[in-house]
Amino acid sequence: MDVFSRAIDDRYFEDYPQGAVYRFGAITVEFDEVIAFASRYDPQVFHMDPEAARETIFGGLIASGWYTAALMMRMFCEHYLSKVASLGSPGLDEVRWPRPVRPGDCLSLRVTVAAVTPSRSKPDRGVVTSFIEVLNQGDDVVMSMKAANMLRRRP
Length: 155
Hints:
By secondary structure, this protein is of the alpha+beta class. It contains 4 helices and 5 strands, in the order βααααββββ. It has a 5-stranded antiparallel β-sheet, covered by helices on one side.
């Protein structure tokens, strides 16, 4: 795994080399948060009711994919995305949830810098495209996606 050459509060577009792979995080999926999130944003029985969830194809309570995405975003912001150069994102592609996430799982991230594209029209910035994989404690991929982030270039 690669290591960033600069701290997150001094990281710019140039500090994301194409092909680099980073691994970080660890966040535990909390039972109460799974239910609270689902109750508010994704009210499906397998996300909200442990008893009823046993009768579904999942055989028990699972986290909403959107809750998993929120946990991913927390780790992505804390460890990968520049605190001084981020200009937002034009979007995501290929969001996948290949395995369910359950309360008690410990999640981490593996992020590959897939492409680094300087802006042609705005030379003070560029787009870093990242392939993000959310891994559980067994290193199984539970979520993946491609994200594009606009970043300032080093002044």
